[in-house]
Specification:
Elements: H1 3-13, H2 17-41, H3 46-72
Helix pairs in contact: 2-3
């Protein structure tokens, strides 16, 4: 296999960073929605409701962090260098 073929193969195997970010964001929204549904079903258990609210807040904070990565994606850095790719974890 030629060197050029290996490079093309490696690129084809890497996931599209934009698709990964969208996937991560959708997962966070699903967490928020699901815990809201749990709260609606657990109206008689205050401790369970409190635990669900903590999970909602955690997911929402992670979603906010992810939107910051999306916002800065593709913008040049302050020092004139290209922006670093967003981390997805």
């Amino acid at each position: 296999m030629a060197a050029g073929e290996a490079a093309v193969s490696d690129e084809a195997e890497r996931p599209d960073p934009d698709r990964v970010l969208v996937h991560d964001f959708r997962n966070l929204l699903a967490v928020i929605v699901n815990y809201c549904e749990l709260i609606a079903a657990e109206t008689t258990d205050p401790e369970a409701i409190k635990a669900d609210i903590v999970e909602i807040r955690t997911a929402a904070e992670r979603a906010l962090e992810l939107t910051e990565k999306l916002r800065h994606r593709g913008r040049p850095a302050a020092d004139g260098q290209d922006a670093q790719p967003a981390e997805t974890s």
